[in-house]
Design a protein that fits this description.
The protein is of the alpha+beta class. Among the domains are: 206 residues, Orthogonal Bundle (Transferase(Phosphotransferase), domain 1); 92 residues, no CATH class; 29 residues; 68 residues, Immunoglobulins (Immunoglobulin-like, Sandwich); 68 residues, Carboxypeptidase-like, regulatory domain (Immunoglobulin-like, Sandwich), CATH 2.60.40.1120; 65 residues, Immunoglobulin-like, CATH 2.60.40.1120. Helix content is 23%, strand content 24%. The protein contains 16 helices and 34 strands. A six-stranded antiparallel sheet has the order 1-2-3-4-6-5, covered by helices on one side. 27% of the residues are buried.
């Protein structure tokens, strides 16, 4: 029976990827008090165990990453060695890499949302900036440069985290291995121009790679492509970058500016630090109508990889059921830490375990699908759930895709050892070699070449379910007619001895009826597979809902109206996306400076219509007029000055005084014992510089200063209104004056003052409040005054007119 494999202190659960130099396993570690942790084990392949240069580079990766502790960099837990096999224990990231995200969006015929691309790039900038600035314990810069920033090396977890991995070729000041002259390290499509030219590299080389990834996420296609590697390197060396807005009209000018700056051919024209690019991306994200963060990224990934998440969650639940107590069932001692690897694991078997050769049907299925994708230059030919699993943690289940029959095991994602009972019978325990399959006939006791016999292979578990005994005897005690088949059996010097590397299988007796039934079932499976492939490859997905993108190229901010409904304001260089518009004609109106702008557009199903406007620039208010200035020369120099009724401090009189332009100003100059003067400055021009000399004549005048509590009382001097308190009266003739001070709600105050010559009389008065008038509504009827009726005036009799005298007749 096949089981997980113990590897040192770790239990290997499944292999998630394998490359030319190393392989990565999902593993589990145990500790005291039931502690458990899922992690990843990166192990050098036995074929590379003798390569000293690669081992040095492998150790350098662990040493560099071991000094980095950041939320956006996958953590290294341990660098170890079991026998001749080096390994790294590192953080397990449950999710997908950026390349898989891009491929999935292409298969769904959707673009990656621009805020999502900007958020991922900002997090990569944050992690790389930390690595670029990292110092050792003595404060010496480590000068770390990743040199292999690519979509495959940026992981996005299902919880919305972004992690950078694979510092295998990172450059650091203290690394042991050095890159040979003329040797290119990294992926050609994500190198920087100076990296291709063989020039010295610094952190700005990684910034160019971030720009490449961001361009591809926004455009939905590769940036540097060519018929050969040399063609790709030539494009990278010359930094031939098409405008991003030409590939995706939804890209705003500020986002395109960020991408093009990062992709500048000369390193001096790029961002100096990754943090500077991160700041610009954060500003772009903050300018969006809806914010985008880790929660949004998690929701998006779980949505487009819903089926993978469910499958991997089910697998994780299975792995959780394996406890430290189960290790004894796998042939391990109770104490994991003290168990030697040799007693639990065959290094040779792990080295070649489940590696697919050219005859593997699973590998052939992959190759055929990828060949079709290359011919059509479109990954849409791949089934939606098909993925190579090269960098993801937890590969796809090809059994669910219908590419292999149920029960078939390609060995690509599982790591198993033989059951101890079976292994003890296997003899030497050497790695299984690719030998022909033989049939052991229980009746004759001879080996027969399986190629010459028609057989149907079942697994050991299926054989048990069918009731086929494992010892070669039938259920009734007789010899069964079926032959026992051993896959990958290896002969040795003893012909009677059989060395088995896997499990026994059984060939049931064949019959014409069964052959016909199998043929019918095979035809049904092929028809069903054709229907599935037609659904995936031919059927077009429903078009996305139509939308309008209103872009303001220049001018003052304007309000956007679509069919009379307001959708907010748009500023120059930005755009507003209006979703939910129906198919048909729509009227877009922008209201801002000048006349409103109107455009009529027609929208079809799945159409995203970009409408660009240019508004008049906002009128700038005219600059304020320059103030006028007044320079006063006073005689006597300590005379007091008031301008428009406001006293001017003596220190300010030493410099020019500012006057509001285009206004008339009154300048009043006075001093006790002198005759006061008033200057009338009419309509002072803006910027005018005036100079006035005021000379006061001596006289015997006096002054008075009046204050009241409360203030604001009206003052009459000899029945002439002179102002409100507090009040200064200058240039008064020495004599006696009658004062009348009045204020609403207070009793009038009458006072006589005498002004002496060349002296100031000061008067402080407190006004007495009037008693409140009673409210007639609150008075008792008896207390209410009886209104006095006015007497009716007596009309005077009209005077009697005297009769006119009779004229005497004139004498004749």
């Amino acid at each position: 029976m096949r089981k997980p494999v113990l590897f040192g202190n770790y239990l290997l659960l499944e292999r998630v990827s394998v490359g030319g130099m190393a392989e990565v396993f999902k593993a589990k570690s145990f500790g005291a008090e039931g502690f458990e942790k899922i992690l990843a084990i990166k192990r050098i392949l036995p074929s590379m165990a003798e390569d000293a240069d690669f081992i040095t580079m492998f150790i350098d990766e662990a040493r560099i990453c071991g000094q980095l502790s950041h939320a956006n960099i996958a953590q290294i837990y341990e660098l170890g060695k079991i026998e001749t096999s080096h390994f790294i224990a590192l953080e397990f990231v449950w999710g997908k890499d950026v390349l898989q995200l891009q491929n999935r969006f292409r298969r769904l015929r959707r673009r990656m949302p621009l805020p999502m691309a900007a958020f991922i790039a900002a997090k990569v900038c944050e992690g790389l900036d930390y690595a670029h600035r990292r110092r050792d314990a003595q404060g010496v810069p480590l000068d770390i440069i990743h040199r292999d920033v690519s979509p495959q090396n940026v992981l996005t977890s299902y919880e919305g985290e972004v992690k950078i991995i694979d510092f295998g070729i990172a450059k650091a000041a203290a690394r042991s291995s050095k890159t040979q002259a003329g040797v290119l390290k990294g992926k050609f499509g994500y190198m920087s121009p100076e990296q291709v030219r063989g020039l010295p590299l610094d952190r700005r080389s990684d910034i160019f790679a971030i720009g490449t990834i961001l361009w591809e996420m926004c455009a939905g296609e590769r940036l540097f492509t060519g018929e050969s590697d040399f063609a790709i390197l030539d494009k990278v060396r010359n930094a031939i970058v098409p405008p991003l807005s030409a590939k995706n009209p939804m890209v705003t000018p500020d986002l395109e500016t960020i991408v093009m700056k990062a992709l500048s051919r000369e390193a001096d024209d790029r961002y100096g630090w990754a943090a500077e690019m991160q700041d610009d991306l954060q500003q772009y994200l903050m300018s969006q109508v809806q914010s985008f963060g880790a929660k949004n990224l998690s929701h998006a990934i779980k949505e487009i990889f819903a089926r993978e998440v469910e499958r991997e969650r089910a697998a994780m639940e299975t792995f959780k059921q394996i406890t430290q107590a189960d290790l004894e069932a796998f042939g391990a001692p109770a104490s994991v830490a003290s168990a030697p690897a040799e007693s639990l694991l065959n290094p040779g078997e792990i080295a070649g375990m489940h590696e697919l050769d050219g005859n593997d049907p699973m590998q052939q299925a992959r190759d055929q699908l990828y060949d079709a994708a290359e011919l059509l230059d479109d990954e849409d030919v791949l089934p939606e759930d098909f993925d190579d699993g090269a960098t993801e943690m937890g590969g796809p289940n090809f059994e669910d895709l219908g590419l292999v029959a149920a029960g078939y095991d390609d060995g690509a994602t599982q790591v198993f050892a033989d059951d101890p009972a079976t292994a003890s019978k296997s003899g030497s325990g050497q790695a299984i070699t690719a030998e022909p399959t033989f049939i052991f006939n229980a009746e004759s006791g001879q080996l027969i070449n399986a190629a010459q016999q028609p057989t149907m292979i079942f697994s050991e578990m299926e054989a048990l379910k069918q009731g086929v005994p494992q010892n070669g005897s039938g259920a009734n005690g007789g010899s069964p007619s079926a032959s026992v088949v051993f896959e990958g059996v290896q002969r040795d010097s003893d012909p009677a001895r059989i060395v088995s590397g896997t499990v026994p299988v059984v060939a049931p007796p064949s019959s014409l009826f069964k052959d016909i039934l199998i043929g019918v079932l095979a035809a049904a499976v092929l028809i069903l597979l054709g229907i599935v492939l037609w659904t995936v490859l031919v059927k077009e997905p429903p078009p996305p809902p139509p939308a309008l993108v209103v872009n303001l190229r220049s001018g003052a901010p304007a309000e956007v109206l679509v069919d009379g409904n307001s959708h907010g304001k748009v500023i120059a260089g930005k755009s507003i996306t209006v979703k939910g518009v129906g198919v048909g004609k729509h009227r877009i109106v922008l209201i801002g400076e000048g006349e409103p702008k109107v455009k009529n557009v027609a929208v079809t199903a799945g159409d995203v219509k970009v409408v660009t406007f240019a508004m008049k620039p906002k009128k700038k208010p005219p600059p304020p007029p320059k103030p006028a200035s007044l320079t006063l020369t006073l005689d006597p120099p300590d005379a007091a000055v008031r301008i428009d009724g406001k006293a001017v401090d003596g220190e300010r009189l030493k410099t020019a005084l500012e006057l509001k332009p285009n206004k008339t100003h009154a300048v009043y100059v006075s001093k006790l014992g002198y005759a006061s003067q008033t200057l009338q400055l009419i309509s002072v021009a803006a910027g005018a510089k005036l100079a006035k000399t005021v000379k006061l004549e001596k006289n015997n005048s006096g002054a008075a200063h009046l204050e009241t509590t409360p203030s604001g009382a009206l003052v009459k001097l000899d029945d002439k209104v002179v102002g409100k308190t507090p009040l200064d009266l200058d240039d008064l003739k020495p004599k006696r004056y009658a004062l009348l001070i009045s204020l609403d709600g207070y009793k009038d105050k009458k006072k006589r003052i005498y002004v002496n010559r060349r002296k100031e009389t000061r008067l402080l008065l407190t006004l007495e409040a009037l008693p409140p008038k009673p409210d007639p509504a609150t008075l008792d009827p008896a207390e209410k005054p009886t209104p006095v009726k006015k007497p009716t005036p007596v009309r005077k009799p009209k005077p009697v007119r005297k009769p006119k005298p009779v004229r005497k007749p004139k004498p004749v």
